[in-house]
Design brief:
The complex is a heterodimer. Chain A is an alpha+beta fold. In chain A, strands 2, 3, 4, 5, 6, 7, 8, 9, 10, 11, 12 and 13 form a 12-stranded mixed sheet that branches. In chain A, a hairpin with a 4-residue loop joins strand 11 and strand 12. Chain A is globular, with a radius of gyration of 17 Å. The two termini of chain A are 30 Å apart. Chain B is α+β, with helices and mostly antiparallel strands. Chain B has 6 helices and 9 strands, in the order H-E-E-E-E-E-H-H-E-H-H-E-H-E-E. In chain B, the strands form 3 sheets. Chain B has a 4-stranded mixed sheet with strand order 6-9-7-8. Classes of the chains: A alpha+beta, B alpha+beta. Chains A and B meet through strand 1, helix 1, strand 2, strand 7 and strand 8 of A and strand 1, strand 2, strand 3, strand 4 and helix 3 of B.
Chain lengths: 185, 207
């Protein structure tokens, strides 16, 4: 049922469509390493663009349904989120106890955040003409459900979700991520 | 000498006792991450790759679940669909309504809607009420009559015209995006310089 990603070098091209899910991990592994090295560079880029966007917050996502107390925290401080509000790249979305929220990114990716959760929009770039861009989310705690949009369709390797223990790569899909804590025996 | 030896023994005994009676200090909680693949409605190929502790696992079947701890390889099992729905109920309840699409058609050459399409506007406005934080994408297209450049301009004017009409219907202007694609995305493929009513259109997506 599950495929180990350790052996990517097989002649896959003939049966590409059915094997795509198996191929993807190899791709992502390589990319993950490349990205790990460039992390510091991309962080500084993000903060520069956040500073540039401080005059006009650049919309990355629009808030859809809101249930309970939901906040956005960014370079300009903290604010309560309501339906129709915009969230920018580099902002953190936080839900209170029993609260939840859904957002749609400009590429059509749908994010649903459960109670007592924190999600960072670390990176979002999207060109609506070519449908290309990049999307990096970080689930700090709690639960996220994501249905990927156009960036994931055009170039799956440009979509990445990081958590305290793992990195998740996707191929046009619907899935849940839960970050919890446990005390080991 | 004896006194010293006694002292040493009692010290050792105390240390041993202390070791037995004090509970070990509580271990700090450590993060644990679970990823569950959900079924895809449109049947497109789906997959999630979970990487941790220098290993990765691919989930390709619905309700496969990968659990990972820091610096450890992910462990995969099959989750029970009903349990997933219950455990993550808020994530299903908060899902926004699915986007809906409309196509409006134009009279030749300009930005005048056909009568039938004009009559659809109130329906689009009414439908938008179902979408909290609604966004409206308006994409204009042309047929192949005229130059490519001219059609880029015309398609954008068509989209802007429809945006204005939607604003008149009471939709929020700041959440309507008008884009022109010229004759690049024909609904019905034709040769150049072909008058084709089905290509003279604006596609509207509510989400």
């Amino acid at each position: 049922m599950t495929k180990s990603l350790r052996s990517p070098a097989r002649p896959l091209w003939a049966a590409l469509p059915s094997l795509l899910p198996a191929l993807l991990p190899a791709l992502l592994l390589g990319l993950g390493q490349a990205r790990a090295q460039s992390t510091s560079a991309s962080t500084s880029t993000a903060s520069t663009s956040a500073a540039a966007a401080s005059a006009v917050r650049e919309r990355a996502a629009t808030v859809k349904l809101v249930n309970g107390q939901v906040l956005a925290r960014g370079p300009q401080g903290e604010r309560t989120l309501n339906s129709g509000d915009e969230v920018a790249a580099s902002e953190r979305v936080l839900t209170g106890k029993g609260a939840s929220v859904s957002l749609v990114l400009r590429d059509g990716s749908t994010l649903m955040l459960g109670p007592d959760s924190a999600l960072d929009l670390k990176e979002f770039r999207f060109n609506p003409t070519t449908n290309e861009g990049s999307l990096v989310l970080s689930v700090v705690k709690g639960t996220l459900r994501m249905i990927t949009g156009l960036i994931g369709k055009t170039r799956p390797e440009s979509v990445r979700i990081t958590t305290p223990t793992s990195t998740i790569g996707v191929l046009g899909t619907d899935f849940i991520v839960e970050v919890s804590e446990e005390v080991l025996p | 000498m004896i006194a010293r030896r006694l002292a040493l023994w009692s010290l050792l005994a105390l240390t041993a006792l202390a070791g037995c009676s004090t509970p070990p200090p509580p271990k700090p909680p450590v993060p644990r991450v679970q990823v569950v693949l959900l079924p895809q409605e449109d049947g497109r190929p789906t997959g999630v790759v979970v990487q941790s502790g220098n290993a990765s696992q691919t989930l390709v079947e619905p309700f496969q679940r990968a659990s990972s701890r820091a610096n450890q390889a992910p462990v995969v099992d099959q989750a029970d669909p009903e349990q997933v729905r219950q455990a993550y109920d808020p994530l299903f309840k908060i899902a926004p309504p699915k986007p809906v699409r409309y196509v409006l058609f134009f009279q030749p050459g300009g930005t005048r809607l056909t009568g039938e399409s004009q009559a659809e506007l109130p329906r689009i406005q009414a439908e938008s009420a179902r979408y909290p934080g609604v966004e409206i994408l308006v994409v204009g297209h042309t047929d192949t009559k005229g130059s490519g450049e001219g059609n880029d301009t015309l398609s954008l004017r068509r989209a802007q015209q429809v945006r204005d009409l939607l604003v008149q219907q009471g939709l929020p202007a700041n959440r309507i995006e008008a884009v022109g694609r010229g004759e690049r995305e024909l609904a019905v493929s034709t040769g150049d310089e072909v008058d084709e009513p089905r290509n003279r259109r604006v596609e509207i997506q509510l989400r």
